[in-house]
Design goal:
Strand order of the largest sheet: 1-2-3-6-7-8-9-10
CATH superfamily: Aldolase class I
Structural class: alpha/beta
Shape: globular
Mean pLDDT: 97
Number of strands: 10
Helix content: 40-55%
Number of domains: 1
Distance between the termini: 31 Å
Radius of gyration: 17 Å
CATH class: Alpha Beta
Length: 250
């Protein structure tokens, strides 16, 4: 099935504002401003993002405000806290039917390759992908190498493995964390074949380093970014958003 990704891309490029960190990390990432989802919705609208990533609770409670912003909604279907230690697993919390009812135009799902629980996540993803595609909904797959299985493996190899897994299981867009090395990322993008790759923003970085890494990512074939903390933790989120847009749509 050939899906239309135009609802979450512009000229084939993507810039998603991610705000699923509240579940994944707890409120420690937030301050008095960015703890409020309305602040994030405002940034997404004024920063002209092509997608806004929320878990289902925020998507439900702030549904009217999201619709008024006209920023395309991407609902994250699974998640976990960072309180439970051991082999990582992230299970489904929201159905395709629920996501569509909330106005989602795409959905996201995380798989931790290398975890002893990866098979469970693969099976869940396949069911999600099958149902989403029947509804013409693109699926973005967060693929992160974690767990005992990645011990001793090179970051370059793991990054390429992550993108290849995304291609093999039928993800429409793969979201990965870059190791910051241009040549490694180039190989990861090539390993993804025709599946598009976006880079996670990760922890707050020095702005100069962030922009440099973004330019390198676009140069090797990435189609954009799913960025959160580096924007909404910034003192001037619209200014950094403008700089990022210029990198993506140069």
């Amino acid at each position: 099935m050939k899906l239309n990704l135009n609802k979450i891309t512009r000229k084939g490029k993507a810039l998603f504002l991610a705000y699923d960190q509240g579940l994944e990390h707890g409120p420690t990432d937030f301050n008095d401003k960015n703890v409020d989802p309305m602040y994030i919705i405002k940034i997404a609208k004024e920063g002209r993002y092509t997608g806004l990533i929320f878990q289902k609770g925020i998507a439900e409670k702030y549904n009217e405000e999201i619709k008024l912003s006209k920023v395309p909604l991407i609902v994250k279907l699974n998640g976990k806290t960072n309180l439970v230690k051991g082999e990582p697993i992230s299970k489904q919390l929201c159905t395709i039917k629920e996501a569509i009812s909330l106005g989602a135009v795409a959905v996201g799902y995380t798989i931790y390759i290398g975890s002893e629980h990866e098979e469970e996540m693969f099976v869940e993803f396949e069911n999600i992908q099958r149902e989403a595609h029947k509804k013409s909904l693109p699926v973005i797959c967060w693929i992160y190498p974690r767990g005992k299985g990645v011990s001793g493996k090179k970051k370059k190899d793991l990054m390429a493995y992550a993108t290849r897994v995304g291609l093999e299981i039928g993800a429409d867009i793969i979201k990965i964390q870059s190791d910051g090395k241009k040549e490694d990322l180039a190989w990861a993008v090539k390993s993804a074949g025709k599946t598009r790759v976006v880079i996670a923003g990760g922890k707050k970085k020095n702005e100069k380093d962030l922009i440099r890494e973004m330019k390198e990512a676009m140069a090797v074939g990435c189609v954009g970014f799913a960025i959160g903390r580096n924007v909404w933790q910034s003192k001037n989120p619209l200014k950094i958003s403008d700089k990022i847009r210029k990198v993506v749509w140069k």
